């Protein structure tokens, strides 16, 4: 037998020496086991809050109806975890990222359209003033 022993004592699994087994209703479709000689491996799936307890193995004493319970047992603690729907939130993040990228691209395009970019890349000619000093307009002036 596999028994829950403390919170809600109940039977979970019974396997006879002839390999006949009974899985009790509370664990139907949630328990798998495999038997190899004197070793049984038990796996519980889709744990629920009320599955938390101490599980112990017990054997039926020959020619008697008494159970011999293993003192050790295994404690199973169930911690509730709030599940979030990651698929919807990830699509929202992707969508928001795409919208931000498009708005940033539009801002860059509008800025480049309004600014005359060509004038920044043209080779500039220097502003030069030429003065012709060859002729003199001041005649008849005294030089001291």
From TrEMBL:
Residue intervals passing through the bilayer: 91-115
UniProt GO cellular component terms: membrane
Alphabetical UniProt keywords: Membrane, Transmembrane, Transmembrane helix
Record SUPFAM superfamilies: Immunoglobulin
Sections of the chain in a coiled coil: none
One of the protein's GO biological processes: adaptive immune response
GO MF annotation, one: signaling receptor activity
Protein name per Swiss-Prot or TrEMBL: CD7 protein
PANTHER family found in the cross-reference section: CD7, T-CELL ANTIGEN CD7
């Amino acid at each position: 037998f596999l028994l829950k022993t403390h919170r809600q004592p109940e039977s979970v699994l019974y396997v006879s020496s002839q390999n006949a087994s009974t899985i009790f209703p509370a664990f139907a479709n949630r328990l798998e086991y495999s038997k190899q000689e004197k070793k049984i491996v038990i796996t519980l799936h889709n744990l629920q809050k009320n599955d938390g307890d101490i599980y112990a193995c017990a054997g039926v004493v020959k020619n008697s109806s008494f159970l011999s319970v293993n003192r050790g047992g295994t404690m199973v603690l169930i911690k509730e975890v709030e599940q979030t729907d990651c698929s919807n939130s990830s699509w929202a993040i992707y969508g928001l990222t795409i919208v931000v990228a498009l708005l940033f691209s539009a801002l860059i395009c509008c800025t480049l359209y309004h600014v005359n970019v060509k004038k920044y890349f043209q080779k500039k000619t220097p502003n030069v003033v030429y003065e012709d000093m060859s002729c003199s307009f001041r005649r008849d002036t005294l030089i001291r």
